[in-house]
Specification:
Immunoglobulin-like, 5-stranded mixed beta sheet, 5-stranded antiparallel beta sheet, 33% helix
Amino acid sequence: MSRWTAALVGIVSLVAALAAGHLVAALVGPAASPFLAVGNAVIDLTPTPLKDFAVRAFGTYDKLVLLIGIALVIAALAVVAGLLSRKTATPGTVLAGVLGAVGVAAVLYRPDLGQLAILAPLAAGAVGIGVFRWLHGEAQPERHVESRRNLLIVAGASAFAGLGGQALGTRTDVEGSRAAVGELKAAKKAPAIPAGADFVQDGTPSFITPNRDFYRIDTALSVPRLRAEDWTLRVHGLVDRELTLHYADLRRRDLVERAITMTCVSNEVGGPYVSTATFIGVPLHEVLDEAGIRPDADQLFSTSADGWTAGTPVDVVRDPARGALIALGMNGEPLPVEHGFPARLVVPGLYGYVSATKWVVDLELTTFAAKRAYWLDRGWAERAPIKTMSRIDAPKGRSTTGRRVTVAGVAWAQPTGIAKVEVRVDGGPWQVAELSADVDDATWRMWRLPLDLDPGRHTVESRATDKSGSTQPQARVAPVPDGATGWHSVSFTVG
């Protein structure tokens, strides 16, 4: 075979294998698709420093970059398989078998997949080997026309199978289920957000983050698609009585509404991974009290529908004053699918990796000694209270016109609350900034400070002090293991 034909045989065989696996996965569990299973395994096995780099470099596009990277790698392997098989099909057959075995291992590794899930990578491996050997036999120089036609036929059939698998895999009508939920009415509404809660005109975020702009950091390559009418939550472990709750059970309870600021532990100093929403749901402590927590339980071990786990201190979640929720709604509508529909946990004052399980399906009362959650084995701390932090949002490192400059930003210290923000220019004395209206200690607080500056280059820094008197430390500390610290600074030129 020519090099081009050999490379095409490898690529088309790979596409056929992945399409077959995707189609079968639609019947046994969408996450069993070999491509997604391998991607999820790569996420789980990637060293923490590399994960942090991906979040810093690509933000919410980190998963897309990962999928593109995996696609390029396996495409390159398919080309190599074809080129090594110009005279005999053996090298390509062996490599196809190895890739199939990797898919099987990735599916077996996933905790959220049943026994039938293995059928997807097995189908992918069988189709990949079969198609490769058939196309290799057909793609001889004397059968040039036939080989081109066969390549086109297989490519077309693969595209049809892949699209069919995608259609079947997304057939669960989650959007219809969300729409059927209707309005979630709170028996106890959150206080109205007062005027002056933000300084948007000076460059701060709006106090409430729209759902479309709310940060999203999770490990899910494919978002779990759960209907509210099919969802259940099991509460078990070190409890006096096990509970199994349905979505309708929670709807019948007295729902409460709370404005809560959530923060990701991966947030660098000055980073974007902090947002505020008005959540509505069931107080978590009420459900746990019904189950009856035994004295030796110190961890609430929560599990997502995709197998991700988090460990939250029991003393935090059972404290009514903390305001932890099994949240059903967000900013006046049922939870968006990517933010955890039908239900998620929201625990104010803790970084998300120990407090914010989306698509939650299981709550186990246990101990930190008995069970380790997802991120603990990856170098992160067992307990992760949010640290006092401030961020400068304006100006954003650009030239300004005029000597009058308003420095503005946001600060947070959930659940203690912000008491003061200070700003200094070019290492000079600290000046106290104006704070926005105080909404709740579980939410962020905006600040601003007008300055008259001489023309030239300037650097401003900010630091916050919480209501306990603790001031944001200057020393820069990376997010691992329990959140970043340091003063945020921005440089700009006054024209």
